[in-house]
Write a structure and sequence with these properties.
Two copies of one chain form a homodimer. With about 160 residues, chain A is α+β, with helices and mostly antiparallel strands. Chain A has five helices and seven strands. In chain A, strand 2 and strand 3 form a beta hairpin. The mean pLDDT of chain A is about 95.
Chain lengths: ~160, ~160
């Protein structure tokens, strides 16, 4: 694993970065073969990340002042430990910028945010076929939550239950 | 599936409910055979759920004015749809109060909160061996996120990465 060069930096995104964030969301979805699931747009990104009550936070990574990746995260909660956790919703490094340690730098930055905020853990979900990502995360010491199944209620099933 | 009787009600928890919430957290953990993972206490429950910036929200369910269950939830975020989601961290109905539709009533209450808040989905995690729960959720129309693996970075691995 290489160490990121001095020309690499990470910054909090601002409302001016909305088009760039949307572009990275779409590039990540394309890589994950899930582009058909992307229904967000600039207005939603602006309202949800930069409105009065942000639902999540965005970081941008730059190499030589060119954007090369991003991360979107929010804080979740563990009742068992009674502490918040950091949930990493999106992590993406542009294909042409990979192999330089930028993904690790983004994760290390998030780890520092988590520790400063008193979080006991960072969690995220990886597509099962994404072996390069899974290997990378395991080498960092991440464990997999193999005993749990995530359920999701959405669309008509959610509307039906809400209307009872 | 029975309909909950009129003697059943759901209320937002208040800071006076901290001991009861902690008791339910421990009862749920015991049912999940994870009681050894519970390190929270009344102070942490109070600070994280009823402090200046609550990390999560608690609901309590009552039958004939006796507490029979609880739910803890927070709002997460989907970048693909650009909307918040509702994440159900804990859902528990006391063993002696099961089979009366109270779990479904709690979930329906959460579904209404999700819809009012503009959430596209409710998500939660279930232990793989908990077949009764899995069957119950599937009958409500919930789907399982089978293509994803959840990773977690914690303890020394988190501290190591943060100190880079």
């Amino acid at each position: 694993m290489q160490t990121a060069p001095a020309s690499f930096r990470i910054e909090k995104a601002t409302v001016n970065d909305v088009p760039l964030i949307l572009q990275f969301i779409r590039e990540l979805a394309e890589y994950e073969k899930l582009l058909d699931r992307v229904t967000t747009n600039e207005n939603r990104v602006r309202d949800t990340l930069f409105g009065a009550e942000p639902a999540a936070h965005a970081l941008l990574a730059y190499e030589n002042n060119q954007p090369v990746g991003f991360a979107i995260y929010f804080f979740n909660y563990s009742t068992f430990v009674g502490r918040p956790g950091l949930y990493l919703e999106d992590l993406f490094v542009s294909p042409e910028a990979r192999g330089k340690g930028f993904g690790r730098e983004l994760l290390a930055h998030l780890a520092r945010i988590a520790v400063e905020r008193g979080c006991g853990r960072i969690e995220w979900a990886v597509l099962d076929w994404n072996e390069p990502a899974k290997g990378f995360y395991k080498r960092l010491g991440a464990i997999t939550m193999d005993d749990w199944t995530v359920f999701r209620l959405m669309d008509q099933a959610l509307a039906d239950l809400a209307s009872k």
